[in-house]
Amino acid sequence: MAPFVPDIIGNELNLIVALLIGIAFGFILEQAGFSSSKKLVGLFYGYDFTVLRVFFTAGVTAMLGIITLSYFRLLDINLIYINPTYIWSAVIGGFIMGLGFVLGGYCPGTSFCGAAIGKIDGMIFIGGGFLGVLLFSEGYPLFENLFKAGFWGSPRIFETIGVSQSLFAFLLTTIAVLAFIITTKIENKVNKRHFSEFQPACIYAGLVILAVIIGLSAFMMPDRQTEILKNSSDVEMLNSFKPAEMSIDEFAFRIIDNDKRLQIFDFRNTEAFAEMSFPNSMNFTFENLFGKDTKRLLTLKKSISVFVADDEETEKRAAYIASGLGYDNILILQGGLSKFKQEIINFSTLQEINSRRDADIYRFREKASKIIPEILLANKNKGVKQKKESKRVLGGC
Amino acid sequence: MNSIKYMNPYLAGFLLGLLLLITIFITGRGLGASGAIKSTVIAVVHSIAPGHTSNTHYYQEYYQEHNENPLKSWLVFEVAGVIIGAFISGLISNRLKLKLEYSSKSSARIRIITALLGGALFGFGAQLGRGCTSGAALSGMGVLSTGGIITMLAIFGGAYAFAYFFRKLWI
Q1: What is the ipTM of this complex?
Q2: A184 contact B CB<8A
Q3: Is residue B131, in this structure, part of any structural domain at all?
Q4: What mean pLDDT value characterizes chain A?
């Protein structure tokens, strides 16, 4: 599961990747005509909407790609950099940049392109950029309050507005297509052209149809995480779902035996987990199951994954989510930890001993009830191990 | 020999979007530009006055996040690539030419002043807004970040709001 940085691609290699991506970035921008300030500001005077076309097409392409990749769980959206929202600095900083755009005719990325092909104004713009950054850094105490005001975290736009991701993606794509049509008309009017630049050559018509299909399919796709989570709280669905179980005796035996293959996924809250946890166990939430780390853990060969929680229903729900995500080979603890505590840890006596098997169980549980609390205590004294969690990539300008 | 026509904007946009997608897929972060200017400023200030960077709050916050040499940063390498890539593109499309571009109604002097001022405003605004057209607006739109999209609207909205007053510079 992507992203590959930092697990697969290390920091040094990442810099080479940066250089290669930059070459492609510069090449595309220059080919699109972004090395000319006159072409760039055409957007604001209506004579050339190239910027809008390139920018909107790129944004929509990337957005649909990200939604599709994360839907098929090829990309973990929780690990990619989402620009944080500081409402005031975003608005005021954006306005200042807008002023800089109409005055200077470039933005930083395009000024590098312009400078690279010999535009002197591009080079001067970069020089100005250095001065601007220096001014901000030196005067930072003056701007710090504004810089940090109105922090909203790193929400995504559809969450802020309160619509589903698919609906937002569909609307944005539609707005983009409408903007392309309208701006072409404006452009023809401003430039006093009477023909349409919108020549529906087969290849473009094909691309438009493809885009519409992709747009519609994005709208149809329910968010998989939301859907699975919703289904998992459906009582009937859970009743008909029969995950494989591990008996409390087998569970106790494997713990006493210090079985390295046993992986325990503990779905209790963090307080309960800190109070009492088994060796080789990890504190998990339902949301964690969707992450990149989970995939690695749950697809480990030869390991036995057991989901535990206080009650069997929570375990079942977690197992349901996992099976929805395509992970099988998951066991749940029969009866949940409440049964385990009652019948193993706080073992007193069996109801009745009728057979030799009952007698064996009696002896085992009696022994286990002495050993397991010691193991738990030792594990507690060792300190709760922090689950290794992949961190979000640090990005941004 | 005339320069070769620009690429179809929709094709260029599609390729740019694909590049942004690949970038996010591989590295988990989007494209950027102004961050490279910031890293360079910090590196330069640090080499001229190392005591100063360790006293000034903004530089300290930068060093808290990045513990390596500021020039050894992702965006500095990416922007070095941008310059190479744009140069190659200009070379094959026959657009390499030392030139100061300005409207016939404007003058070279005015163009130099506005380019410098515009660059300074953009540099300043990109620090305040945590990213420029690439890092905040384009990449932010790709990942549907609220902050990125607000910055994008503010950049283009601001540009339209001020465009009328500076129309003599361009048309």
Answers
A1: 0.95
A2: no
A3: yes
A4: 86
